């Protein structure tokens, strides 16, 4: 291990360094025989990382080699982690010797620290530079970020959306998981064969993790599927123009055994308690996407030879689907709009994704912005041509709104959904504190109203980098021209990863002028986020999985940016564009950062009176983070995977072009498959 890093960590972890240094934890407390087992392992890992001269090194090594009962897998993960860290640090220091100088400087700052803020700033300078200087200077950072996001509008869209009910395909995702352990599956209001299939699925190992999936058997009042569709139905009912909208739902599952019954579950719930008058529902499962690939997309490549046909089939099946990590269904819910346009209804010119725990608060929208949901979607900024603050051409083919929490909406529509942290950082937040740049970014990007002389929404507007999974859309023409996607291996922040595929890659269609695809900020297009009001049970069940997902996100985003750099993009420039929030997950030393964060967070959970959460977190991390380091720990491998998936999406859009040109049987077949997915009243 590099001596400059171990010197920094030894100083940070030394309980005898003196009160002014505010050490992150007292080693003796956590290494004691009566400490929580996973906390002992985490403390041992940190002490070993801190170097040979650390006073508790020998005891720490003994714990890692002979761990407490029940923590063997966690200790094995930490031992492997030490080797991964050594390899990463050796490679990074060889590529950037200045990294070691940063650790030296951070150690010096830590030694001179006199306040808790000094400690945080010193450690952030080493591990989390995006947060440096933010605390107590939040307004200056908000203003600077808003300035960098300001764009000059060169031409508003000549073809804005004018009839959202007809021209916008609404989409959302149903994330389905097994019943809560307390649920009596025999009492579920479904046929016997469906209940039996649910029980079998519940006995399987979990394959995928989502933030707060719908637990089968949850009460209708707490079911996101019903809640979100009713909210959309009410929003359309409040529009003076009226009409009916189509909402296409993908259904993704956490356990393989749920896939064959996913559609039946959705149909049963909608039949039982749907009550929709203004929304046509289309439900797409993995089986449906396979039919689209096999019966529509592949025949569009019939001119290719047999070898290429096999490659295209494998590639399309890989990327076109709805099961798997977040990235897979997210890309499909965008890409399907192009197929819908050429095969089902050419009037559809855009898609807009909502999350089912969010609703359009039409009363507040009208009162505070003077426009309804439909009227916001008609903004001529969506599709405008612009110039970024540094002179780059932009196509604002994407549109992004904002969120307000249900508990805050009484304070006004423009109440940030992420509070500015007023507290000092906790243990693990000394090396990674995303809540701080997230709150800055939320205020800079999402709270702009276009009501001042500087940024008026006509001559100047904002481009968005920080977006949320719902409340965003893309025009079909931009979709087909730039062909963006989220890689299938992205398991969190799929919304922010979506734009990365279009950055620095030279994407574009015929007549491309070199414009970069970008999000237009839709000022006032705010959805109310209600998850805390009704989805408490599912959120609690998914809490630890979400924490681990954030750690995996660091590994994924870091590897993604490395892969883009290998493809010719300027990594430093990408980081500058994505900072402070999206970019903070792309670390120079992701393995080191994640392993330190895991150990410190385990200690925090153990010391907060929730040892069972510490144990669940440590064990889950040992499985999922280890798998991610193995799968996507090599930038060359990720670059190859990225190129493969980019080629697959090129094949998809080439097929769309062929279907549009040739029409006839392929278009009819695609329309028939999608029509089969429509839910009948």
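Q: What amino acid sequence fits the structure above?
A:
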């Amino acid at each position: 291990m590099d001596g400059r890093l171990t010197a920094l960590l030894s100083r940070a972890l030394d309980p005898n360094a003196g009160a002014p240094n505010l050490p992150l934890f007292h080693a003796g407390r956590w290494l004691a025989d009566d400490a929580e087992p996973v906390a002992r392992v985490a403390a041992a890992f940190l002490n070993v990382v801190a170097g040979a001269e650390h006073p508790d090194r020998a005891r720490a090594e003994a714990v890692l080699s002979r761990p407490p009962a029940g923590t063997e897998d966690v200790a094995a993960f930490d031992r492997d982690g030490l080797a991964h860290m050594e390899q990463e640090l050796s490679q990074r220091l060889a590529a950037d010797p200045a990294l070691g100088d940063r650790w030296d400087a951070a150690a010096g700052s830590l030694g001179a620290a006199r306040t808790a803020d000094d400690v945080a700033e010193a450690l952030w300078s080493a591990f989390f530079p995006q947060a440096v200087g933010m605390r107590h200077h939040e307004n200056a950072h908000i203003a600077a970020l808003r300035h960098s996001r300001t764009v000059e509008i060169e031409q508003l869209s000549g073809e804005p959306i004018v009839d959202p009910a007809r021209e916008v395909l609404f989409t959302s995702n149903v994330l389905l998981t097994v019943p809560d352990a307390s649920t009596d599956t025999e009492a579920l209001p479904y046929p016997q064969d469906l209940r039996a299939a649910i029980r079998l699925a519940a006995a399987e190992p979990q394959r995928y993790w989502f933030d707060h999936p719908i637990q089968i058997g949850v009460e209708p009042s707490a079911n996101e599927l019903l809640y979100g569709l009713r909210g959309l139905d009410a929003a359309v009912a409040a529009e003076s123009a009226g009409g009916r909208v189509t909402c296409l739902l993908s259904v993704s599952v956490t356990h393989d055994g749920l896939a064959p019954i996913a559609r039946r579950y959705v149909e049963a719930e909608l039949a039982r308690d749907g009550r929709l008058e203004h929304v046509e529902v289309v439900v797409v499962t993995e089986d449906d996407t396979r039919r689209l690939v096999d019966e529509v997309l592949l025949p569009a490549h019939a001119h290719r030879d047999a070898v290429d046909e096999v490659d295209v089939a494998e590639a399309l099946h890989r990327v076109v689907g709805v099961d798997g990590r977040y990235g897979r269904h997210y890309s499909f819910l965008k890409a399907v709009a192009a197929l819908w346009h050429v095969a089902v209804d050419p009037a559809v010119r855009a898609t807009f994704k909502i999350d089912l725990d969010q609703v359009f608060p039409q009363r507040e929208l009208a009162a505070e912005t003077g426009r309804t949901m439909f009227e916001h979607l008609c903004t001529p900024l969506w599709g405008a041509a612009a110039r970024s603050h540094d002179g780059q051409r932009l196509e604002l083919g994407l549109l992004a709104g904002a969120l307000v929490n249900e508990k805050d909406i009484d304070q006004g529509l423009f109440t940030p959904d992420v509070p500015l942290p007023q507290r000092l950082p906790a243990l693990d937040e000394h090396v990674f504190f995303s809540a701080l740049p997230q709150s800055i970014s939320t205020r800079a990007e999402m709270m702009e109203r276009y009501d001042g002389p500087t940024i008026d929404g006509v001559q100047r507007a904002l481009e968005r980098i920080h977006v949320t999974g719902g409340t965003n859309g893309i025009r079909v023409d931009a979709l087909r021209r730039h062909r963006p996607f989220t890689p299938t291996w992205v398991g969190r922040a799929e919304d922010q990863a979506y734009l990365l595929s279009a950055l620095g890659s030279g994407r574009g269609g015929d007549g491309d002028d070199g414009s970069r695809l970008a999000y237009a900020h839709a000022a006032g297009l705010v959805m109310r986020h209600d998850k805390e009001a009704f989805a408490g049970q599912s959120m609690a069940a998914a809490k630890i999985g979400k924490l681990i997902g954030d750690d995996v996100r660091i590994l994924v985003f870091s590897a993604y940016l490395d892969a883009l750099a290998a493809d010719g993009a300027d990594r430093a420039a990408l980081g500058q564009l994505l900072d402070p929030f999206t970019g903070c997950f792309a670390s120079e030393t992701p393995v080191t950062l994640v392993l330190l964060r895991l150990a410190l967070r385990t200690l925090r959970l153990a010391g907060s009176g929730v040892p069972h959460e510490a144990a669940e977190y440590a064990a889950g991390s040992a499985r999922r983070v280890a798998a991610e380091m193995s799968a996507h720990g090599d930038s060359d491998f990720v670059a190859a995977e990225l190129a493969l998936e980019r080629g697959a999406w090129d094949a998809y859009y080439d097929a769309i072009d062929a279907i549009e040109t040739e029409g006839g049987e392929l278009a009819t077949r695609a329309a028939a498959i999608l029509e089969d997915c429509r839910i009948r009243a």
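Q: And what stands out in the fold?
A: Residues 635-662 form the longest helix (28 residues).
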